[in-house]
Amino acid sequence: MCSCALRKEAARGDRANNLLLILEDQHGCTRHQAIERLRHLTHERFARFLRLETHSPDFDDILGPLPDLTRRPVARPG
To answer: Which InterPro entries match (predicted)?
Structure first.
């Protein structure tokens, strides 16, 4: 269930860049408990985002239509 990056970081002792490892260390919990905690945090944050989104202004109404910002290929000197 855990990613390859998680296993590699844990094996290297690189525990500062992976939220699961940080949660394990900060809360003294098992990997499974850290996963459940992260799942709960993610759900809370997403629910908050959706609530805030309903109260955000429609920027098209404020700014008007925005220019087409579609990416175009860049000609490289040959």
So the answer is: Isoprenoid_synthase_dom_sf
